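The instructor's notes for this session suggest beginning with a concrete chain rather than abstract definitions. Hand out the sequence below and ask the class to guess, before any prediction is shown, which regions might be ordered.
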Amino acid sequence: MQVDPRGMRFAAAATTLVLALVLVTGNGWLLLAQAAVFALGAAGASPYALAFKRWVRPRLGPPAATEDSRPPRFAQGVGLVFALVGLIGFLAQAAPLALGATAAALLAAFLNAAFGFCLGCEMYLIIRRLLPATR
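After discussion, reveal the predicted structure:
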């Protein structure tokens, strides 16, 4: 399956805003909501991507090129792991763990939103190159 790279950056911008709000407010419930978005994104049904397709993409027209959906879905899974670690930190009242994991996810989302560099996607590609091909 192919995805519009502009949609990935849109989703990363929305994620950046949500995670920044989590850091500013210390709201674990908001991080839980973002974790659900990450889980849906890893399953291929990101609410942010759906919003992009419905309201933004029609105004932009078709993309010049599309990309494989597997790396961004993997990246959403990595974001989910960091969000879950952050949630554990909030539940355990371990602020450094909660805020550190959230900040790491925020950094990755910001890199994608601002510069089009998907850290999780790059991790996916490196892992694929290191693992022997399974056919």
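Then share the key points. The chain has a mean pLDDT of 96. The longest strand covers residues 2-3.
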